[in-house]
Specification:
DNA-binding, elongated, Tetracycline Repressor, domain 2, DNA-binding transcription factor activity, mainly alpha, about 230 residues, Arc Repressor Mutant, subunit A, 2 domains
Length: about 230
């Protein structure tokens, strides 16, 4: 059963460089432990021990474990979105954006091995956080697709539905070939994904002739027997 989402609390922003470093250490420690042990088994004491700070210091920056988990998920999403935006900034058309975006996502997932496990847990820890993670990606995706449609680079269709289709494709390809296989054959994966985006599933749309249908033979009328 999902935990109810906690009301958004104002984040404590440290005023000193030392405070900023301490808060960052807590976030990085929490990210590591939520990825390694899971939310249920990672305690606040574990987080402060990993961050090498006193237990009471945790509560200077975060009211509870759920709050730091939500911030870890939000920050993972923000880091990935920022990296994606930088990587596709010089792409000349939408197909180039899609290929470079997929490549960048695969590289990020390869480096941030905890990404999938932490985001999956968010569905059960804080549903609003889980939805927000994907909705923020979708908003940027929809805007980019609308611009591509206006430029004649993408067929006109529902941009939000298309955004979630493309996000789902990247998510599952990353899980299969980065998380499970350790980056095996990614160029082939990229080539196949881009062929799908460029030509679709229908072989006829890619210019291939439709297979000929075999004509069913008509049964011969039985010969009449002569007496």
């Amino acid at each position: 059963m999902n935990r109810s989402s906690t009301p958004a609390l104002p984040r404590v922003v440290p005023l000193t460089p030392r405070g900023q470093r301490t808060r960052e250490k807590l976030l990085r420690a929490a990210e590591t432990l939520f990825g390694d042990k899971g939310y249920e088994h990672a305690s606040i004491a574990d987080i402060t021990r990993e961050a090498e700070v006193a237990l009471g210091t945790f509560y200077v920056y975060f009211p509870d474990k759920q709050s730091i988990f939500v911030e870890v998920v939000d920050e993972l999403g923000a880091r990935l979105r920022r990296l994606l935006a930088e990587s596709v900034a010089r792409c000349e058309d939408r197909l180039a954006v899609e290929r470079e975006g997929l490549r960048t996502f695969f590289q990020f997932a390869s480096r941030e091995r905890h990404l999938y496990r932490i985001v999956r847990q968010a569905e059960f820890v804080d549903e609003a956080c889980y939805r927000r993670y994907y909705e923020r990606f979708a908003r940027g995706y929809v805007s980019g697709l609308k611009r591509a449609m206006d430029a004649g680079e993408v067929r006109r269709m529902d941009p939000e539905v298309l955004a979630y289709c493309l996000m789902g494709m990247g998510d599952f390809l990353g899980m299969r070939w980065v998380l499970w296989e350790g980056d095996a054959g990614l160029e082939h994966v990229l080539d196949t994904a881009m062929a799908l985006l460029r030509h679709g599933l229908d072989a006829r749309a890619a210019g291939a002739p439709a297979p000929e249908k075999k004509r069913a033979r008509k049964p011969r009328a039985p010969r009449s027997k002569t007496s």
